[in-house]
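Check out one such.
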Amino acid sequence: MANAYFSDLLATISERGRILLGRSSPTNVKQDASELVELCEALLSGRGEASGTAMAREVLDRYHHLDAAGRLTFFQSLANDFGPDLARLTQAIESWHTHANGDDASDVHFASEPRRQELIRRLNRAPGGTGELVSMRSDLLSLMKGNKDLAALDRDVVHLLSSWFNRGFLVLRRIDWSSPANILEKIIRYEAVHEIRDWDDLRRRIDPVDRRCYAFFHPALAEEPLIFVEVALTEAIPGAIAPLLAEEREPVPVERARTAVFYSISNTQRGLGGISFGSFLIKQVVEELRRELPKLDNFVTLSPVPGFMQWVKQADDVPLGEDDRQLLEALGKGDWPQDAELAAQLRAVLEPLAAYYFLKARTPKGRLIDSVARFHLGNGARLERINWLGDLSPKGLRESAGVMVNYLYRLDDIEKNHEAYANNGEVIASSAVKKLLKGEGRRLLDMRLG
């Protein structure tokens, strides 16, 4: 109610501003980037609230009618021509050199701010401005490829969005079958890990007694989930995704559930890329579940390994002999998991290789290769288990040869694990994973087969 009232108020102010300015809404004709830049200059120089709100709305409306080339020109103008006021900055620096006190240092700080930051703040005052700016940043990300001069503009946009989407503004809501249809439809559309095929599939994920779904919302985007997590309540830590998503399965009575499994986490707004909500989401959902179900002992993920096979095929440092490489050619056969002997041979190669991938392999900049691993380990989780043939979907076989992993969130160890990873790059892993790296897993498997 409050959000709707405030939005209506902004719309009224904007419309009155249009009347004062003698402007009408732009038509659907193609817009010129130079005219839009002039309008931005006028917006920065104005002081009136109603006229400023109307002008901000007009900038956003006209932006929609720019073609791709026009948007690139517009962004380049913001990057090159809306930097700091150099005369003001020079004066502030000279004053600081003369007096070197706190006030002068503050003047340098504010004088160094690019003018485009204030422009973005003013655009945010328009009705629906926050959502429009998130969408605009998505366009900016697409255009940054091959246009490095836009990096400074992107930093400024991220700086402001990070403040506006601070954890303190986010609201956690549970999504269930009684949630509004427009939000449920977005859960289907935005699911990025395990495709939701239809409404029946969605209901199986959020309606049963042993299923939960939670999402973060922002007051300015009240009907848009920013990130959501799907949770399965189970008796033990699972090693495969298919049983969790099976159409015909028996729900686990909540009184028997001892494990909460975070099996899918999806970001929904590309324009908020690089602004992390996931760590806050998981930790808050853990607290919600603990209050509701105090008997839960384990909080784990069942996570994909999206970059594993690409690394195996392309990286120069993959520790493989020629015989093993020839064996891996069998992965091109789509039915290889049904061949028990072949699958066992591949397991003996790929499980230790997966352990190496997580514990030893790094990018040229020294980072873990796998983005999912960086996310969970950075949150303080432990690499608990590598699951052979955990995902037999075509995507899972293609990206990771079916390998999935469990990351364990042990509440008493989260901060310690986070510090070890953040400060030293140390991957906290279970003894079972470490044994795979040493080759003991392969030796034990050979013994079983022999």
